[in-house]
Amino acid sequence: MASATNIDLSGATYCILSGASQGIGRAIAVELSKHLGPKSLMLLLARNKDQLAKTQELCQSDNIKVVYQSMDLSKATAEEMLDAINNSLKGYKINDFANCVIFHNVGSLGNLAVPTERIEDVDEMRHYYDLNVFNVIKLNTQFLKVFEEVEDRVIIVNVTSLCAIKPMSGMASYCSGKAAREMYFRVLAEEKKHVRVLNYSPGPVETSMIDYVLAETVNANLRDVFMSFRSQGALLKPEVTAKKCLKVLLQGKFSPGAHVDYFDDE
Ligand SMILES: NC(=O)c1ccc[n+]([C@@H]2O[C@H](COP(=O)([O-])OP(=O)(O)OC[C@H]3O[C@@H](n4cnc5c(N)ncnc54)[C@H](OP(=O)(O)O)[C@@H]3O)[C@@H](O)[C@H]2O)c1
Fold first, then answer.
1. What are φ and ψ of residue 232, in 5° steps?
2. Could you give the CA distance from residue 135 to residue 72 in angstroms, rounded to a whole number?
3. R_g over Cα of the chain
4. What is the distance in A from the centroid of ligand 1 to the CA of 4?
5. Distance (Å, rounded) from C-alpha 95 to C-alpha 97?
6. To test the ligand 1 pocket, which listed residue (54, 105, 244) has its Cβ within 8 A of the most ligand atoms?
7. Which residue, among 230, 224, 250, has the nearest Cα to 28 in the 3D structure?
8. What burial letters (b/e) apply to 83-95, b meaning 16+ CB within 10 Å?
9. Are the C-beta atoms of residues 205 and 241 closer than 8 Å to each other?
10. What is the pLDDT of residue 2?
11. Contact 198, 175 (CB under 8 A)
12. 26 C-alpha to center of ligand 1: Å?
């Protein structure tokens, strides 16, 4: 059953956003910053410092403080993640935040040059899962530990994909990783009814991921799908899907752990 409660971010809100240096992550950060109340604090994570600084600049307003931490989330330890969160919180009290939000947006596509029936380099796949599944879970756990006392104020958004629920030729790592990641958040939502959990699927979006697919894939079907998205002008702008993501989140109509797609009716 859908929850009817709106989400109100107009109070002081703490927010972590992974993969915030470009693409959908940057657009969500900018859109989110427009909704946050006074004394809010945003922590942006990704590797590229210069691009994180640019996102910070785009989000900055009198209401909120925006900080960033360059971090390779495929390798970061639980301690490094916890330190990043705690460092960002210096000078703040957890109880001062009306909402504590995390956007798990980080993502990659993995090796698209190996046909599905030839995948055997398990180390490579493990590395893929480290970034896209295991360390997402690890970061989420650090976040939940820090905000344990105020867990009823926690909001989790996982940026998922249609590929989590529908197979796409040539994307075995991506589809299986997105499916595992989404199911983890669904289980969490099942257990923690007082935590708001949304799996938001952004639709096909014009970001560097599209260039990567077209440059790397050996799967003709996948190339055709993405080429026709591009030639038909069907790719969404990051800002457009980011707006929808925030709209879905703030309306709060989604059921716990629901997979909500850009193209779903409101
Ligand atoms: N584009 C689409 O059509 C589409 C569709 C459905 C779902 N999605 C999902 O949307 C999310 C964002 O994708 P996007 O299209 O915006 O891709 P993108 O432009 O490639 O952005 C990926 C983000 O993840 C960060 N990242 C990658 N590897 C990292 C690492 N090892 N450590 C830390 N950060 C890392 C990147 O920053 P650095 O390089 O600075 O580290 C970047 O900020 C992903 O979860 C993706 O699966 C995208």
1. -90, 0
2. 10
3. 18
4. 31
5. 5
6. 105
7. 250
8. ebbeebbeeeeee
9. yes
10. 44
11. no
12. 10
Mind listing the pLDDT tens digit for each residue in 79-94?
A: 999 999 999 999 999 9
d(C-alpha 73, C-alpha 75), whole Å = 5
104 CA → ligand 1 middle, Å: 10
Residue 63: predicted pLDDT: 86
Residue 61 Cα to ligand 1 middle (Å): 25
Amino acid code (one letter) for 148? E
Compute the half-sphere exposure of residue 122: CA atoms within 13 Å on the CB side of its CA. 0
Continuous H helices in the chain: 23-33, 49-59, 78-88, 122-129, 135-146, 172-191, 208-216, 220-231, 238-251
**167-204 pLDDT tens trace:** 999 999 999 999 999 999 999 999 999 999 999 999 99
Residues 6+ apart with CB under 8 A from 170: 112, 115, 116, 217, 218, 219, 221, 222
| Helices 49-59 and 23-33, packing angle to 10 deg | 30
Does residue 28 contact residue 246 with C-beta atoms inside 8 Å? yes
> Token digits for 227?
């080429």
Mutation test residue for ligand 1: of 207, 212, 240, the one with most atoms within 8 Å of CB: 207
Tokens 């879905």 locate to 248
26-to-19, 30, 158 alpha-carbon distances in Å: 8, 6, 15
pLDDT beneath 50: ranges in the chain: 1-2
DSSP state of 236: B
Domain ranges of the chain: 13-260
CATH 1.20.810.10 fits 13-260, yes or no: no
